[in-house]
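Example with several molecule types.
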Amino acid sequence: MIYTCTLNPAIDLFIETKHLKPEVVNRTNSYDIQPNGKGVNVSFILKQLGVDNTALGVGGGFTSEFIEKSLRDQGIKTDFTHIDGISRINVFTRVIETDTEYKEVNNGPIVSSKKLEDFLQKISQLKIGDKLVVSGSFSKGIDPEVIIKIAQMAQQQQFDLVIDTSYPEVKAAVKYRPFLLKPNNEELLSWFDKEDSNDLSTLVKYSKQLIQQGAKNILLSIGSKGALFVNQEQVIFGNAPKIKVVNTACSGDTMLGTFLAGMEQKLSLADNLQRSIAAASSTAATAGLTDFNDVKELMKQIKIEQLEG
Amino acid sequence: MIYTCTLNPAIDLFIETKHLKPEVVNRTNSYDIQPNGKGVNVSFILKQLGVDNTALGVGGGFTSEFIEKSLRDQGIKTDFTHIDGISRINVFTRVIETDTEYKEVNNGPIVSSKKLEDFLQKISQLKIGDKLVVSGSFSKGIDPEVIIKIAQMAQQQQFDLVIDTSYPEVKAAVKYRPFLLKPNNEELLSWFDKEDSNDLSTLVKYSKQLIQQGAKNILLSIGSKGALFVNQEQVIFGNAPKIKVVNTACSGDTMLGTFLAGMEQKLSLADNLQRSIAAASSTAATAGLTDFNDVKELMKQIKIEQLEG
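Resulting structure tokens for the full complex:
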């Protein structure tokens, strides 16, 4: 079973308004409410591609209930650890008159050490053949070092750990041989205290360092440039198709979910990378997650190159 | 039984942030989530003063569920008409650096004529001895003329109708002899196409016109000046105490709820008006609704004058 895990889930409230003026009542044009959280998105994508999975998470209140129900409505199993407090609502306000967006990202409630233990108790049940995807930032009260502990548990229990979080602690987790890391270029280079860059040879170099240190596979998204896949045997690269970007927020989650689904479905690495880049691009070209309708068409624009191996 | 009714309930999301800049992620300091809606507030106030009541409303989705659960958690009965769509989340962002507030008020989902009929079916069950409080704006799909229909039903079924909504249709409802209207000075004068004013003699004049046209009682809030009570027999006025205003949003609802509770509790009109103004002022001096702790103290600052009768 594939398990996703969201340690600070959120509801996204998208508001469209003509103007946003201080101290007056701004009556808006419209709003949209979406369940969010990077692990939640990976669950949705996996399920869209027909791959059963279970969403784990740490959340509270009616907002977390909404997120969990949204998952179950799609046929995804949920097993959240429930905390006091109300999981956050993030607000994205698009202002028509000035063509700007205001993004308000809230912190989320505090997780007690007892609740963190309850969550880790669930992880302790995972076993060989299982995959756990840990995505996104962690709630207040959850030390980023927990990713090192989870990596240790993965090695001991022999389940496959997939990490998509930008904390520097990821580097210390690498020695426990996580199955896959999915940074973007900026995250990868920040782990090596380097300036952001999208230079392929630089990105290959540092990806290979992570492989040497223990990571089994790296899936690296490079924004509008495309993506790299790196492991012991090979380095492959795919360019990104040309699209009109609407919102890139969930692109990385889409790429990861699609790639993991492709692994389950035994696609070749090249085909899998090609489909994953196309799906990520499709998500970037829509307001929410891709519906995969244009993915076949986008794939035609993507060429996969074997750089090494 | 007293029934309150909220035809466009909302959740209020209060965000505090250091700054609110366009096109970047603004990580905020804190957030608070509150159930809202003018009828919902009246229900909370009535219950705080020990008066049982039932909250009616027209709402949908997990946000309406949260509002209804918040009411039931306080021991208030609920009987909402459930619609498709998700009841709105309004956003109030306080920006520390500039000491400003951005208020984003959303529209709410559309109510079908079928659902409006379902709601009116509930109203058709009310009978002599019942009171119905209709507060706030109506959802899309609900024509403001429905207030005239409800007023007719009140007269036929002999229940007491209390109206706190600013629609001009209120004036046409007056001939069906509603029990109480609770406008503020601006609303009252707008019904007579007059400029806003807080001049007492002007406000008494137009209040008495509504009484002549059929309204049985008028409770008129006049912002920081105080409040008037007008009926066939008398006109009484109370000044407002001096307070440090935090948020006046729920003051009118507090005044109305307190006044209706005072009627149930057979307070004298003068005592009731005094307590109602104090409670409204207390709410204006706090972030949410008053807890009534400072109401006795605030009452000392309020003098009730018999202007007529």
